[in-house]
Write a structure and sequence with these properties.
The chain is α+β, with helices and mostly antiparallel strands. The protein is 20% helix and 49% strand. Strand 1 and strand 2 form a beta hairpin.
Length: 93
């Protein structure tokens, strides 16, 4: 996933994605309450969203809460979340 926070930009591994937000693994930092622009490439296309930094783990990454998802990407976002949740459920059994 590609993300941008002010002048800081990176491609990072996403961990623990949910309907409400996600965690990005990165050594780069963004301040709490900063807005981060996100660009996911998923099986069904792309998803562009914005999120707010809620917490930072220096040297590990930061947690984000989704603010908005582009209208044209809502269906792809929904499909992505359903696939992730289904995968989690499958791993539990």
């Amino acid at each position: 996933m590609l993300w941008k926070c002010g002048r800081t930009e990176d491609t990072s591994k996403v961990k623990d994605v949910s309907v409400g937000g996600l965690f990005i693994e990165t050594s780069k930092l963004c301040p709490i309450d900063a807005t981060v622009e996100l660009h996911f490439l998923v099986e069904d296309g792309e998803v562009r969203a914005s999120a707010t930094v809620k917490y930072v783990l220096p040297g590990v990454g930061f947690g984000l809460q989704f603010k908005s998802i582009r209208n044209e990407d809502q269906a792809n976002f929904s499909t992505m979340i359903k696939r992730i949740l289904q995968s989690r459920d499958d791993q539990k059994t």
